[in-house]
């Protein structure tokens, strides 16, 4: 299937590089393109494998009907001219996950986790507990490891756990999971998809090719999750329903108390729901309650996701840089009862912050940053909330220093993507943590 082909790979990030190397020994004619130059040693390695490297800002011009296959970086927007041209020429377009799927050994048990929010935390909990259960599990996907780069580590009968973003679901064909988890769906990435309807349909592809031998684990409290899964063939198990749920006392699986909330280090209803979703998956592999309890008593959570940074003079600092949409910010705001100094803003994706309306009760001051600084400021004015137009994190932290008092919370929960000022949200979070350390 991937031999003797003329292949164009668009994007030289982790996924592009790994898929190029995987296909390089199949007698393929491969061109790898990016808009930015790549590391010279990496270029030399690729060229030694017979891969042609083309750096151009006009990747659309590279595309013609001589290509048998185009492997597209997930970051290339669904609404882009590149995608329009690929569709016009009817060229088969895949992503790195789709390619890697065809190189997996037989009888691999694939777990896929997606959702607008919570997928990284859910995936991490599943992975760590499977390891504690002595299962052979390999982790890959949106969590930071291209699937093509770990294909050789996956053995027959292993568990392959993949965090999958909506971008990665766009160009799949044969790829399927045995167990799919849909944590939630909310309005985000609309600039990428063009409409919320397309975004929802794309999320529904997590159940691609499912039969009644496969399992779908779905958030019953999310109406959009129910909508996109209403016609799937999977065996469906819900969480946040009458059987698997969270109360003020604890987390219940099949109406059985698994762990008290007081025994969980992570805080916030969103984290309890992520744990619940993970436990529904783990139930299929048989888990020991005591192993789960011991793990959750010490689990600090995922970096950049409501991550406690430090406390200074009775002021607590939290890094929630992974909040790239307003729904994530709502989740963060619901976690705290103390006065909040909120750092809000980033890339302009035509987002609305109206979703925050009912959750601003504890917000003392907002510090607007990024491309949406004016938008955030206007929103705060409409809600009679004090706002400083800071534009950058550095300026926001200077202003915060002038306003905080004992007992306050400083929360970076931008509700926006980071690419206006940072390569990725991790860079934004790391700068925040550095600023806190030197506060």
Structure description:
The protein is an alpha/beta fold and 439 residues long. The chain has three domains: 6-94, Rossmann fold; 105-298, UDP-N-acetylmuramoyl-L-alanine:D-glutamate ligase (3-Layer(aba) Sandwich), CATH 3.40.1190; 307-437, Mur ligase, C-terminal domain (Protein-Tyrosine Phosphatase, Chain A). It is 32% helix and 21% strand. The chain is built from 16 helices and 20 strands. The protein has a six-stranded parallel beta sheet. The protein has a six-stranded mixed beta sheet with strand order 15-16-20-17-18-19. Helix 5 packs across helix 11. The chain is globular.
Characteristic terms for this protein:
439 residues; alpha/beta; Rossmann fold; UDP-N-acetylmuramoyl-L-alanine:D-glutamate ligase; Protein-Tyrosine Phosphatase, Chain A; 3 domains; 6-stranded parallel sheet; 6-stranded mixed sheet; 21% strand; globular
């Amino acid at each position: 299937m991937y031999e003797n082909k003329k292949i164009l790979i668009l994007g030289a990030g982790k996924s592009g590089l790994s898929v190029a190397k995987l296909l390089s020994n199949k007698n393929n004619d491969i061109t790898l393109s990016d808009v930015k130059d790549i590391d010279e040693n990496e270029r030399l390695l690729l060229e030694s494998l017979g891969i042609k490297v083309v750096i151009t800002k006009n990747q659309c011009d590279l595309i013609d009907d001589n290509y048998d296959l185009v492997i597209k970086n997930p970051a290339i927007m669904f609404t882009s001219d590149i995608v329009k041209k690929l569709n016009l020429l009817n060229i088969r377009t895949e992503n790195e996950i789709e390619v890697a799927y065809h190189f997996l050994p037989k009888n691999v048990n694939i777990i896929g986790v997606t959702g607008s929010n919570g997928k990284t935390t859910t995936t991490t909990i599943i992975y760590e507990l499977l390891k504690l259960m002595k299962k052979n599990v390999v982790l890959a996907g949106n969590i930071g490891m291209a699937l093509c780069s770990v294909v050789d580590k996956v053995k027959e009968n292993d568990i392959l756990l993949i965090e999958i973003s909506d971008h990665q679901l766009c160009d799949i064909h044969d790829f399927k999971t045995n167990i799919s988890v849909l944590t939630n769906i909310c309005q985000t990435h609309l600039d990428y998809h063009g409409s919320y309807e397309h975004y929802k349909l794309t999320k529904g592809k997590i159940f691609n090719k499912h039969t009644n031998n496969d399992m779908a684990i779905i958030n019953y409290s999310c109406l959009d999750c129910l909508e996109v899964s209403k016609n799937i063939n999977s065996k469906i198990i819900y969480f946040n329903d009458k059987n698997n749920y969270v109360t003020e006392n604890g987390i219940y699986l099949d109406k059985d108390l698994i762990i008290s909330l007081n025994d969980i280090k992570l805080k916030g209803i969103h984290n309890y729901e992520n744990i619940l979703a993970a436990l529904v998956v783990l139930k299929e592999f048989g888990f020991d309650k005591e192993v789960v309890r011991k793990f959750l008593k010490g689990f600090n959570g995922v970096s950049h996701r409501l991550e406690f940074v430090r406390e200074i003079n009775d002021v607590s600092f939290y890094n929630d840089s992974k909040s790239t949409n307003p729904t994530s910010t709502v989740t963060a705001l619901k976690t705290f009862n103390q006065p909040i100094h909120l750092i809000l803003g980033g890339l302009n994706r035509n987002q609305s912050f109206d979703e925050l309306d009912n959750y601003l009760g504890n917000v003392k001051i907002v510090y607007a940053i990024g491309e949406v600084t004016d938008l955030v400021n206007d929103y705060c004015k409409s809600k009679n909330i004090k706002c400083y137009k800071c534009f950058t994190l550095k300026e926001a932290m200077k202003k915060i220093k002038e306003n905080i008092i004992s007992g306050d919370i400083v929360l970076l929960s931008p509700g926006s993507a980071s690419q206006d000022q940072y390569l990725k949200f991790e860079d934004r979070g790391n700068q925040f943590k550095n600023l806190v350390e030197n506060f």
